[in-house]
Structure formats: C-alpha cells, structure tokens
Amino acid sequence: MWRVAFFASRSRSHLVWMDSVPKSAASVKKILCEAPVESVVQVSGTVVSRPPGQENPKMPTGEIEVKVKTAELLNPCKKLPFEVKDFMKKTEALRLQYRYLDLRSSQMQYNLRLRSQMVMKMREYLCNLHGFVDVETPTLFKRTPGGAKEFVVPSREPGKFYSLPQSPQQFKQLLMVGGLDRYFQVARCYRDEGSKPDRQPEFTQIDIEMSFVDQTGIRSLIEGLLQYSWPRDKAPVGVPFPSMTFAEALATYGTDKPDTRFGMKIVDISDVFRNTEVGFLQDALSKPQGTVKAICIPEGAKYLKRKDIESIRKFAADHFDQEVLPVFLKANRNWNSPVAKLVMEEQGPGLLRRMENQEEDMVLLTAGEHKRACTLLGKLRLECADLLEARGVLLRDPALFSFLWVVDFPLFLPKEENPGELESAHHPFTAPHPGDIHLLHTEPEKVRSQHYDLVLNGSEIGGGSVRIHDAQLQRYILETLLKEDVKLLSHLLQALDHGAPPHGGIALGLDRLICLVTGAPSIRDVIAFPKSFRGQDLMSNAPDFIPPEDLKPYHIQVSWPTDKETEKNPLNPPRQAES
Amino acid sequence: MWRVAFFASRSRSHLVWMDSVPKSAASVKKILCEAPVESVVQVSGTVVSRPPGQENPKMPTGEIEVKVKTAELLNPCKKLPFEVKDFMKKTEALRLQYRYLDLRSSQMQYNLRLRSQMVMKMREYLCNLHGFVDVETPTLFKRTPGGAKEFVVPSREPGKFYSLPQSPQQFKQLLMVGGLDRYFQVARCYRDEGSKPDRQPEFTQIDIEMSFVDQTGIRSLIEGLLQYSWPRDKAPVGVPFPSMTFAEALATYGTDKPDTRFGMKIVDISDVFRNTEVGFLQDALSKPQGTVKAICIPEGAKYLKRKDIESIRKFAADHFDQEVLPVFLKANRNWNSPVAKLVMEEQGPGLLRRMENQEEDMVLLTAGEHKRACTLLGKLRLECADLLEARGVLLRDPALFSFLWVVDFPLFLPKEENPGELESAHHPFTAPHPGDIHLLHTEPEKVRSQHYDLVLNGSEIGGGSVRIHDAQLQRYILETLLKEDVKLLSHLLQALDHGAPPHGGIALGLDRLICLVTGAPSIRDVIAFPKSFRGQDLMSNAPDFIPPEDLKPYHIQVSWPTDKETEKNPLNPPRQAES
Fold this sequence. Notes:
The structure is a homodimer. By secondary structure, the first copy, chain A, is of the alpha+beta class. Chain A has four domains: about 1-75, CATH 2.40.50.140; about 90-105 and about 535-575, no CATH class; about 110-245 and about 405-525, BirA Bifunctional Protein, domain 2 (2-Layer Sandwich), CATH 3.30.930; about 260-390, GAD-like domain (Gyrase A, domain 2, 2-Layer Sandwich), CATH 3.30.1360. The first copy, chain A, has helices at about 25-35, 90-95, 100, 105-130, 170-175, 215-230, 245-255, 280-285, 300-305, 305-320, 340-355, 370-390, 470-480, 490-495, 510-520, 550, 565-570, and strands at about 1-5, 40-50, 65-75, 135, 150-155, 160-165, 180-190, 200-210, 245, 265-270, 290-295, 325-330, 360-370, 405, 410-415, 420-425, 450-455, 460-465, 505-510, 545, 555-560. In chain A, the strands form five sheets. In chain A, strands 4-7-8-19-18-17-14-9 form an eight-stranded mixed sheet, with helices on both faces. Chain A has a four-stranded antiparallel sheet with strand order 10-11-13-12. In chain A, strand 15 and strand 16 form a beta hairpin. The first copy, chain A, is globular, with a radius of gyration of 29 Å. Chain A starts with a strand and ends in an 11-residue tail after the last helix. The interface between A and B is large, with 121 and 120 residues. Strand 20 (about 545) of chain A pairs antiparallel with strand 6 of chain B.
C-alpha cells in the first residue's frame, strides 16, 4: 500500500501518476475529477506496473501507476492567476507576484534544486576534501571607505548606523590574521545600486580565502572546485582553464571578460594602412597612439543586411563617437561605399593576408586610440554575433562552457571624475604584481596587480587577488596613493601589524554562475524570491511604509521630498509602471 | 624537502615544530630566535623523526621535527596587547577589540572548526541523505505584524523601509506552497532587542520545513540530524529523545525548558497540608487555585549555608513576592525557625513519604497559585544546583547531553498589557492541536498547539510546529482571535488559497547549540566576530556615524535627542563603560 500526496493534475518527481481509477469506487473518482487544478490531493492505493505499451519513458515514474483505494482533497486551489505550465507565457511581474505558484514550474524546480546540489558539492570539495572552515561573518558592519553603495541600518544609538557589507572582504582577511588559514563561506552580500536590470540588492557569493598561497594555488583550487561541483547532466569542465592578460583580452576581444566560445578576434592592421589615402584612417594614424583595428564577421556578406550595417555604424557613432567602415571581400557589395572600394583596391591583399578572410566574410574596420578602438570592436563583435545567431548561424554553442582567467590587471585607474588622481581598479587590499613593486613610488599608474578574474562565456563570474599583508605597504597605498581616510580601516592595518600571513582569495558570484549553468534568461530565475529591478518584492510589497513611532527607537525620521523632487526622482514613478 | 610557514613560537595542527636548528647555519638560527612572538615565519628543511625519547605524544606533530635549511621572517608581529595563550586571563572587551589575535587561541580555533564540521554534517544529512533543498531566502523583507524587534533598512523610495526578518518563517511556508517540499537553510536572522546579555543582533538558525509531515516525522528527522552530526569526541546522542508536555514540564520543573540532567523535581504536597496550622500555607490553600509545592535539595543540610538560605528567600520575595520555607529533616537545623519546626512536627511523616528524603536533605516549600509556585521553585531548583556545584557536588555532568521535546503548548496566551486579549504563544501560523479544534470558537485560550520545543540541558535550542495550511482557519485566527491587520499578510493568505500542502517545520538555534556542545561560556565564543552585549563591534567600532549626505538617498535624517533624553537613555553611556 502506497500513500502519496501531490498537486493534482501534475506529477512530481517523487510521486506516482494515476492512470487507473477502479470504476467501482465512484466516490474516489469523483474527488479526483472534481479537484481543481493545482489542488493538493492524497491517495492511497497499490503501486503496479503500467500495462504493456502504456509506459512513458519520459517520466521518472512512467513505468508505474497506482490502483487507488482512497482519495482525499487536502486543500483545494482557488482560481489561478495563470496556468502553471512552462509553455504559458506570463509577464515577469505576474510571476513575481505569485512566486509561490511560479516556483511549481518544472524550470524553477530544476534551477533551485540544481543550485542546492551544486553548492553542496562545492562545500564537500572545500570542507571535506580541502580542509576549509566555513565561517559566518557579520552582515551588520560599519561603512567601508567609499562604500556609497552600502545599505545603512540605523542602530539604537543616535546617529550611528550599521552597514550591510558588499562582501566579507575585511573579515576574511582578519580570519587569515586569526589563523583560520582556509576560510570559505556562502556569503550573503548587499549592494544598493538603485535600479539596475539583472542586479539584485542582495546576492550570494562563494567566498574563499587562504593563507600561504599564490595566484596559481587559488586558480587550481577553483578549477578543481568547479570541476567537482559541475552538474552531471552538463558537458564536463576541462582544466586547467586558459588564462590571458588583461592587456591581451583588451587587444583581442575589446573587453576584460571575453567570450572565448567563438573567434572574430580584433586584429591590429595599422601597418597595412601606413600609406592609406582614406581620410579618417590617415587622421587616426597621424596621432601618437593611433591605430587601425578590424574584426572579421564570418559570412557577414551573406547574413548581415543593410539595416544591420546601419545600426552598427549608428551604435559606434552614438556611443563611441567613432567611425566604422564595413568592407566586403565580394567587391560588388562595396560599390555603394567608395571608401570601402578604395580600401579594397589599396589594401585588399594586405587585409586578406592579415584577416585570413573567406569570400563571404565582412570586415569591420575602425581607427583611433588603442583602448577606444578595441572596446568599440569588442562591443560590435558581440552585437554581430547576436545578429548572426538571429539569422540561424550557430556561433556560441549553448552546451559549451568556456572558462577563462584574466590576469595582470592594472592596480590603479585614473579617477573618472578627476583623472589626475588614482583609484583602485578593484579594491585597495589588492597586492601589486611583484615585478612592478619598483614602480609604486614613481609610476603607480603603471603597476600591475595580483588580481584575477574568472570569466565564463563572456560573463565575469568571479574575481580575487593576492592581498597586501604588509601594514606599511597597505598604509602607503591607502594614505599616499588613494588619499583614503585610514581611520575607517585602522583595525585592519593594526591586524596586518600583528603577524599577518601572506594570503589571497576569490569570490564567485553564485547567482550568475547558476544562471549560466542552467541557461536561465535572468538571475531572477535562479533565486527563489528575487526583487524586481527596482528592488521591490512584488509578492509581499516590500519595502513598505513604517509608522513613525517604529522609527523613534532608531532616532531617525523620514525627510519627505517636496512634490518637485518627487517628479524628478525616476525611482518613484507610480507603482503600475513596474514590470 | 618540506616548506612550511606558521606563527612563530606556536605550533599549528598542520605545521611541524622545529626543535633542531643546524648549528652551522647561524643566520637561520638568528632569524628564528629574533622573530617576535606571533610573527609569521617560513622555513624549508627536511622532516625527520625526533630523537628517541624526545617525542611529544600530546602534539599532533610530536613525533617529527624539521632540520631547517632556510628560514624567512614573512611578517613580524608588533607588540601584543595580550599574550595569545589560553591561560592568560583577558577581559572580554580586549578580546573582542583584538579579535584577530583572540581567534588564534586553541579554544576559538576548536570552537569555530567544530561549528563548521557540525554544520557540514547537518547539510550532508539533510541534502544528501534526505533530499532536502537548500534555498536561500531574502533578508531584505517587509515588516511582519508585531515585528517590533525588526531592524529597518531604508530604501531609496521615500518613507519605505525593508525589514531584516527574525526568521524565514513566511518564505519557508511559501516554499511549501511552491512545491519545494523539503526545504532547509542555514539562515541568518536578525533581532533587535537592544542590550541583552548573551544575545546577538544577528544569529544563525538551521531552518527546516517539510510538506506532508506530522510532529512525529519532524521530531525523528531532527533526532537523526543531531545524532548524525554530533561530534565524535563527545558522548553519543541517544534517540529517540524523551518528550514531555508543557503542563508536565511546568508542574515538574517549573519551566518550559527543563534541565533533565538532574532530579530535584517539584512535588505537589497540597494534600499533606490540608490541615496545616501554618499561616501562609493555610492562606494559600484557602484560595481556589491554591497549592503547596516543594523541591528537595539533596544533602542541602550539609552544603547550604545560612546565607544561601537567606539569599534564596530574598530572591523569592523580590522577584515573586512569595514566601519560601526551608525545612530540614535534621530536626536540630530547624530550631531557628519555629514554622519549620511546626511543619516537621505536624507534617513530617507525610512530607518524608512524599519527598522520599534522606536525612541530610533540605526541603524548600512554597505555596500559592500553581504556575507561580512552580515557576519560583523551578528557578530555585537551578539556583540551588549552582550552589551545590559551587560546593563541589556534581549534579550536572558536563559530558552529558540531555535532550528533551516539550510539546502541547497553549496556542494562545493572554496579552501581557491587556489580559482580556489573546496573543500567539509562538507565532500566528502555528496549527491548533487536532484534539482541541472544537474549542477554537468557544474557549480559544484552552486550545493546545502543535508547537514543539527542543531543549538541551535546560536551554531551548529549537522550536517549530505544524503550520496552518487552511486559508480560512488562518484568517479566522489572525483577524478574529488576534485582531491583526491581515493586509500585511495578504500574500501568505493568498498562497494558502492556492493548494497549500499540509506542512510543518522547525528552527534550531545554531549559536546556542554549538555553545552547549563545545561547553563555551558564551555564544560569543562560538561566533567569529560577535557583537558586544550593546550591539557593538569593538574591533571596527560599528555601528558608526555617517555623514548626513550619505543618508540623503534614503530620505532619512537623524533626530538627535536632546541632552535630557540622552541622560535618560541607558543605551548611550560613555564608550568606556562597555565591558
């Protein structure tokens, strides 16, 4: 005798499916037939094999059925706002509002169960196989220097606030000083970025730190971790992952997170054009940092339409103020563009040699300063890949997982608002590259860091670094180079002064990783209860108003904006505008 | 060749200890001898067996030593604020301020590593052996009805706040509705209780919920979970755990979390005193709910001093407004108390029969309303156990772990501020006891619940219940009985209307559990970076002031208290007052 309960009209992996209801038991049949869709029903009966020919090999329980003896309607389902079937198109707002129903879809069940299993395997690898210690670090912390994106939490001490940290960075370094030499945590982190699509105000990272380790050590740990935890139903992960310097990534793919599943690499063809008569190329090359760069769109002549070319050129003009020249090898496609025709006549052979083109290919050519030209072509490379795939060309195999380490980032970048000053390219605790230490006091902008990023299929899924363990160096970088208020970090500097071991670590963005593994369209599809892009929980309607008396213990009050300010505030449109 | 790095002058489990430095290498010896204590040193050399007779069986690496070839001081340690040796007494404030040094103590290392291992075993049990799914639920949520202890987090929408939830209660129920029928999470929870000793504003619970389960199912799951995850170096856990009703716990131990490692149970001796001439006993018994209760302190006559008795009586008078009468069986100890003498003369034989006393025992006797008398004696029972143990009597074996289920709690309690109204004894989602459903509409105060507590050695380490899965019943309890604003919970009520399966769950307080397992004096000793009892991080000085411009995006401002208010506010004494 077998007793099961389930959502009526749908099978669940651990439940058996009823095909046969004994005709004698009319009342049982009535209960089961009349139960509204998605109600919860309990039946008792005998599990038997399905009659020959009626097996369903596509169902986990497709070989059996239950001869039902009793049936009970445990809880009926009221009218549904939508049907819980994957092929039904629902707006995302509706799905989020009725998340408890959306979670019943087989896709959400798959995503969340896979997430749980993958994290469990990661824990086994770190904790059981490699001696890591799972340490929980506080989320009620204090503001970090420059922590403008940190949520604040008022305390009962007037004027004093906790901050919800963006990562356990300081704590994990302090744990290294504390002799917990292999730390990991599946850490909840917080970042208040206002409204950004596909970002969540709270997110999860696999947070790792080790003492007495170098870049190679951490990289091979992570490669092993991903290999070990990779789902069995996906193509296995090959290790070691290839690695590329930041400079190479920029020059070849125009980005620090290259999608290496396909080619269309950027080629520097400046030398081919040394004697060009084309105006904008001449101009560019006459400048000190001037270059000519190109990518080759395979079969672009066959698949890209005139309007595609136009939208590409418009994008370059709008976002980069750059000219882009499409050149077709099939001479007849270039008649409309005298410039392209000129290029083919002048530099055709050189171009062909350098780009290794086929007849149906198209070359996208631009000129200008190295970084700018590369970044533009990097974007156009992805844009064209989208276009080609929309026309049925398979460039990026969805079953393929292409990992890549990007290394040797610059330690500092010029500040956006004040390019004369420096800011950390990643964070101020990143150690400088040992080969560049001598430049720290003379040309800090040239110093490479010991930061590394892990990229999967063109998305950054992790980043980390070897950290500074020398208090004096840390103080110099914070105070002299970054002009930070070191008082906010005095505890960390003090800790480094007390025998801090050399250490380094990494954090993997779990939501993004699971999103890529499952092929979900958004990270919201791998989170049980995500916020909308405006940071709202559409199910419970959080955040919500709070009576003023409940704010009193925290010594805060609301500064209501004037009507004028409200109008200007894009974050505060009427509720129904949210999707 | 073996290369290791470590904190100078202390061995770590994975490191070898140097006993022999080749005399030829004077420079190596100099480095090692001159490195300040707690510095980080790296040596390379050859691992060899220690000379016979020099092995140290107490050290994990006591059989080997390293013949050092090179040595390097990786990072020196500046002057220490205290010595990192367990026998050095430090004030807790100092330990918290230099937490990164305190973490190096063998006790903190043991506590945190045991915590990590025990949680890992729990995960294996739940995830790998019992098909539970680890689901992360949001911590930026909305206020729950009556959520006065919830931290608020201002959002960028004027006047709207998130709340940091006290538990994932609503989410785990919604997951059940969503068909994730076995959920668990090691969940970070938040509770703002102001200053309370041995409470933390953020804490961790092992959060579990299951569909299609009854009390027995959850209890045996938890028994298996604890048995499976229990550390090997502790006495094994026997299952099933004994269970006791709330009524029985109150009557026998005067509390809902009895420490069942020792006896001294409360005995109702009202019938013995039916004809007493002692005034306060007569008075008590003449009232409708009047009782006389007693506990027996074994060898109390031998170990308890006059001042102990006095402090016990004072405690009863101060906190319970109750009289307590100590009665010694050794008649000569009672000469100072004519009342005790009278009792022994009148009721001696009856008392002896009921209490099963020995000659050296002492009886503590009180009279009054059942609950009040029991609660008082429950406190005195623990008080006397402390006193006896301070005198060298072993009552509570520290190696013993005594688990107990307490069940059949009342579903509602009279509101403290308004006893005519009801409030939930635990939370409003708790299902009523099936045997008492008929009383819900007539005498709700008599309804027992399907709540259960798990008690270990007198501490509550967990609690849970079978939940209400019927929307109509949930609405009746919220609206009619509890007078709550159901609008705040409309999403949950709606979810129950959409085919919610019967479900139940539990949450175990991880910090408290690990504290009891390790025998740590405070939960702060099993948390890497705890807050002080005033909610401060003494290392980083969180919470901290924030510039007003950083509050602007959140539309809040600080309401600075006037000087008078500050004086009255006990939460805001000068910093140095904190210990």
